[in-house]
Design brief:
This protein is mainly β and about 120 residues long. It has no helices and eleven strands. Strands 2, 4, 5, 6, 9, 10 and 11 form a seven-stranded mixed beta sheet that branches. Strands 1-3-8-7 form a four-stranded antiparallel beta sheet, with no helix packed on it.
Protein backbone atom coordinates (compact mmCIF):
# COMPACT_ATOMS: atom_id res chain seq x y z
CA UNK A 1 0.00 0.00 0.00
CA UNK A 2 0.94 3.64 -0.27
CA UNK A 3 -0.23 6.86 1.35
CA UNK A 4 -0.62 10.03 -0.70
CA UNK A 5 -0.62 13.66 0.41
CA UNK A 6 -1.61 16.46 -1.96
CA UNK A 7 -0.58 20.08 -1.56
CA UNK A 8 -0.63 23.22 -3.68
CA UNK A 9 -4.29 24.04 -3.98
CA UNK A 10 -5.65 27.51 -3.38
CA UNK A 11 -7.43 30.51 -4.85
CA UNK A 12 -6.29 31.79 -8.23
CA UNK A 13 -7.56 34.35 -10.70
CA UNK A 14 -8.85 33.20 -14.09
CA UNK A 15 -5.87 32.82 -16.39
CA UNK A 16 -3.58 32.06 -13.49
CA UNK A 17 -1.46 29.01 -12.66
CA UNK A 18 -1.03 26.54 -9.83
CA UNK A 19 1.18 23.53 -9.31
CA UNK A 20 -0.16 20.63 -7.31
CA UNK A 21 2.15 18.12 -5.65
CA UNK A 22 1.40 14.59 -4.52
CA UNK A 23 3.96 13.07 -2.17
CA UNK A 24 3.85 9.31 -1.74
CA UNK A 25 4.95 7.34 1.30
CA UNK A 26 7.02 4.93 -0.76
CA UNK A 27 9.03 4.61 -3.95
CA UNK A 28 6.76 5.50 -6.88
CA UNK A 29 9.09 4.37 -9.66
CA UNK A 30 7.32 1.03 -9.97
CA UNK A 31 3.75 2.13 -9.33
CA UNK A 32 1.88 1.35 -12.54
CA UNK A 33 -0.17 4.53 -12.83
CA UNK A 34 -0.22 7.79 -10.89
CA UNK A 35 -3.13 10.05 -11.66
CA UNK A 36 -4.84 13.32 -10.86
CA UNK A 37 -8.63 13.44 -10.64
CA UNK A 38 -10.99 16.25 -9.77
CA UNK A 39 -14.49 16.56 -8.40
CA UNK A 40 -16.38 19.81 -8.94
CA UNK A 41 -19.23 20.59 -6.53
CA UNK A 42 -22.24 18.41 -7.24
CA UNK A 43 -20.48 16.44 -9.96
CA UNK A 44 -18.73 13.11 -10.27
CA UNK A 45 -15.01 12.63 -9.93
CA UNK A 46 -13.23 12.70 -13.28
CA UNK A 47 -9.77 11.90 -14.57
CA UNK A 48 -7.64 14.96 -15.28
CA UNK A 49 -4.26 13.44 -16.13
CA UNK A 50 -2.24 10.32 -15.52
CA UNK A 51 1.30 9.10 -15.95
CA UNK A 52 2.53 5.52 -16.05
CA UNK A 53 5.70 4.11 -14.51
CA UNK A 54 7.14 4.24 -18.06
CA UNK A 55 6.33 7.93 -18.39
CA UNK A 56 3.33 7.68 -20.72
CA UNK A 57 0.95 10.56 -20.08
CA UNK A 58 -2.77 10.86 -20.65
CA UNK A 59 -4.97 13.94 -20.40
CA UNK A 60 -8.64 14.79 -20.36
CA UNK A 61 -9.60 16.73 -23.49
CA UNK A 62 -10.64 19.70 -21.37
CA UNK A 63 -7.13 20.24 -20.01
CA UNK A 64 -4.93 19.31 -22.98
CA UNK A 65 -2.46 22.08 -23.73
CA UNK A 66 -3.01 23.71 -20.33
CA UNK A 67 -2.09 21.07 -17.74
CA UNK A 68 1.07 19.00 -17.49
CA UNK A 69 1.58 15.92 -15.33
CA UNK A 70 5.07 14.87 -14.32
CA UNK A 71 6.79 12.67 -11.78
CA UNK A 72 10.04 12.90 -9.82
CA UNK A 73 10.82 9.39 -8.68
CA UNK A 74 13.72 10.57 -6.52
CA UNK A 75 11.27 12.65 -4.48
CA UNK A 76 8.39 10.16 -4.62
CA UNK A 77 6.33 13.03 -6.00
CA UNK A 78 3.88 13.55 -8.84
CA UNK A 79 3.06 17.06 -10.02
CA UNK A 80 0.22 18.68 -11.90
CA UNK A 81 1.14 22.02 -13.45
CA UNK A 82 -2.04 23.90 -14.27
CA UNK A 83 -1.92 26.95 -16.52
CA UNK A 84 -4.61 29.19 -17.97
CA UNK A 85 -7.00 28.17 -15.22
CA UNK A 86 -10.67 28.85 -15.75
CA UNK A 87 -13.65 28.85 -13.36
CA UNK A 88 -14.69 25.45 -14.70
CA UNK A 89 -11.41 24.01 -13.41
CA UNK A 90 -12.48 24.70 -9.83
CA UNK A 91 -12.76 21.44 -7.91
CA UNK A 92 -11.21 19.29 -5.26
CA UNK A 93 -8.20 17.64 -6.88
CA UNK A 94 -7.22 14.14 -5.80
CA UNK A 95 -4.06 12.15 -6.35
CA UNK A 96 -4.43 8.46 -7.13
CA UNK A 97 -2.07 5.49 -7.27
CA UNK A 98 -2.99 2.27 -9.02
CA UNK A 99 -0.86 -0.84 -8.94
CA UNK A 100 -1.21 -4.48 -9.80
CA UNK A 101 1.19 -7.38 -10.02
CA UNK A 102 4.52 -7.19 -8.18
CA UNK A 103 4.34 -4.65 -5.39
CA UNK A 104 0.75 -5.43 -4.56
CA UNK A 105 -2.73 -4.57 -5.76
CA UNK A 106 -4.14 -1.23 -4.68
CA UNK A 107 -6.11 1.79 -5.79
CA UNK A 108 -5.26 4.52 -3.29
CA UNK A 109 -6.49 8.11 -2.97
CA UNK A 110 -5.13 11.15 -1.24
CA UNK A 111 -7.27 13.46 0.87
CA UNK A 112 -7.66 16.06 -1.87
CA UNK A 113 -6.74 19.70 -2.26
CA UNK A 114 -9.16 22.49 -3.14
CA UNK A 115 -8.63 24.60 -6.24
CA UNK A 116 -10.76 27.73 -6.56
CA UNK A 117 -10.68 29.88 -9.70
CA UNK A 118 -12.43 33.17 -9.22
CA UNK A 119 -12.03 36.88 -9.73
Amino acid sequence: QVQLVETGGGLVLPGGSLRLSCVASKDISRIKVMGWYRQPPGKQRELVASITYAGKMNYADSVKGRFTVSRDNAKNTVYLQMNSLQPEDAAVYYCNAKNWGPGGIYDTWGQGTQVTVSS
